[in-house]
Amino acid sequence: MTDQHQAHDLLRRMLRVRRLEETCVELYSATKIRGFLHVQIGEEAVAAGVMSALEPDDAVVATYREHGHALLRGVSADSILAEMFGKQEGCCRGRGGSMHLFDAATRFYGGNAIVAGGLPVAVGLALADRMQGRRRVTACFFGEGAVAEGEFHESLNLAALWQLPVLFVCENNLYAMGTALRYTESQTDLALKAAAYEIPAWPADGMDALAVAEAARRAVDAVRSGGGPHFLELRTYRFRAHSMFDPERYRDKAEVASWVERDPIATLRATLQAEDRLSEEEWTAMQQEVDAEMEQAVAYAEAGTPEPVEELTRFLYTEPATP
Amino acid sequence: MKTTYREAMRAAIREAMQRDERVFLMGEDVGHYGGCYAVSLGLLEEFGPERIRDTPLSESAFTGAGIGAALGGMRPIVEIMTVNFSLLALDQIINNAATLRHMSGGQFSVPLVIRMTTGAGRQLAAQHSHSLEGWYAHIPGLRILAPATVADARGMLWTALQDPDPVLIFEHGTLYAVPGELDDDAGAVDIDTAAVRRPGADVSLITYGGTLPMVLEAADRLATDGIDAEVLDLRTLRPLDDAAIAATVTKTHRAVVVDEGWRSGSLSAEISARITERFFYDLDAPVGRVCSAEVPIPYARHLELAALPTAERVVAAAREAVHAGG
């Protein structure tokens, strides 16, 4: 992949996530989507960069702020939006919703709404690969709030002890819901926590998609070639509220504004345009293409159908194969 | 052949490991120590450290790793040393293992088996003695087994490993040393049905797991009084075998549920409710219950015994049921 091709690809990926989530927010206000809705607007470089480094048969475990991760892993915007509409055409037939997107075809294992709850599962997916001699990588995303959980420490220790092919991706957006890292951690340099388990850990600028992609590529290569688990701390920022219910009393507008100046999409676009590597026509075409994808997805979700309530108790246990 | 519950369980693990290379055992002290209750003694030497995996004291991580490994195509057996320790893994068991299939719209199955010791009777006091299997039986998405006999210790594991969904096996600590006869060709058994361990006509004693030997003893004592008790071993606590419960209750018209769990909000309450909901007019007496006293299980022998269901209390409850109806 040429540099230019890769940069355009990252820009398109981030734009797709941004438009998908802006659409989600509108649909939430229109009461088409209910429950909790957590958008990652501002953090798109993280999922865009890391997903670009993965192979199709790798596995992904993500958090409840995972629309972008699912989309960039290959889950269609159609089935993501249909899921949030609670329709049976959704990726989980409307059983999961925004926080619990799953997709077997792309090995996307959620969508986990328990902070740090996905880490042990990622360790197990990697263990299965190791025991079966497969050179696959499991990428496990979590926020900086997860490092306070016991499951974080148990999982890092186990992955390092058994030298399992896990890439731990810490999306450090500075706030666990509304509580800043400095109020919850005695040691706020998160890479040191991984280092305590003898896991190579690198920080990268989570607002710079090219930097994330490069860090992820190096880490994924190291994990895949048998280097054991690796840890990326990606420093980023969520521009919007934690969820649609968050009054944002814990941070001031000036802080948000200073991060918005580093918008990962605007930054990459400006860099490419300054270097004459992105024409206005290409940018316009990219936006139109993404807008069309999201319009189509909304139409798909609108046209979706509710699962008959008679099927309420399906998928609890595996159904016997019909002869 | 003569064997014990412990040896039968070990034979079951060994057979599963031999038959399916995707099967492996992990947990605290399962390898070099030989298992806290010596169930896995010798298996490390036989199968090696890749398949008999000692874990750190990280119940949540290794239980979750079992879930992940199951999703990744393996057939893990996770051993949790005792039911009280499983509380440290509740997030993984309840929020992940039990939900993933439903929450993903049927895309993912978790073919995981979790074994753990349960129950009192060994003066281990309140942090090693509880019977929380009824709690787990509350959770949709799990299958809960309670092998009470040597044959079930030998045969339930393989069938559980064939189940595409998570199965929890509760092994009562007082059963490991219990001897029993096993056919030389003993193997897999069903994990769907309850079993009548002693047929009878006058009263149904419904129990499972560690209290089964005591309930059979109570039935023998009742027989000397001319009361013919039927003993139903539930075997599977979720889903309950409603047909077997129906069959015994409509036969004897009297039921006493014996459950080492506490009475309030318990499995015994669930069974009693189901009987009353469906067979109220078939009953000749109120459904009786013999449960543990509602205290954390104490250490001192006499206090522990006072807290637990005993044959005397079962006999008394059965007599009450028989005499209530006249």
UniProtKB/TrEMBL annotation, chain A:
Catalytic activity: N(6)-[(R)-lipoyl]-L-lysyl-[protein] + pyruvate + H(+) = N(6)-[(R)-S(8)-acetyldihydrolipoyl]-L-lysyl-[protein] + CO2
Positions of transmembrane segments: 108-128
Positions of the Dehydrogenase E1 component domain: 12-304
Protein source organism: Blastococcus aggregatus
Protein name: Pyruvate dehydrogenase E1 component subunit alpha
GO MF annotation list: magnesium ion binding; pyruvate dehydrogenase (acetyl-transferring) activity
Enzyme class at the top of the EC tree: oxidoreductase
EC number(s) reported in the record: 1.2.4.1
Domain of life: Bacteria
Automatic annotation (TrEMBL), chain B:
Keyword tags: Oxidoreductase, Pyruvate, Thiamine pyrophosphate
Matches recorded under InterPro entries: THDP-binding, Transketo_C/PFOR_II, Transketolase-like_Pyr-bd, Transketolase_C
Gene3D superfamilies reported in the protein's UniProt record: 3.40.50.920, 3.40.50.970
Top-rank lineage group of the source organism: Bacteria
GO molecular function: magnesium ion binding; oxidoreductase activity
Domain Transketolase-like pyrimidine-binding residues, every copy: 3-178
Keyword Oxidoreductase (UniProt): yes
Needed co-factor(s): thiamine diphosphate
PANTHER family reported for this sequence: PYRUVATE DEHYDROGENASE E1 COMPONENT BETA SUBUNIT, PYRUVATE DEHYDROGENASE E1 COMPONENT SUBUNIT BETA
Name of the protein in its database record: Pyruvate dehydrogenase E1 component beta subunit
Organism of provenance: Blastococcus aggregatus
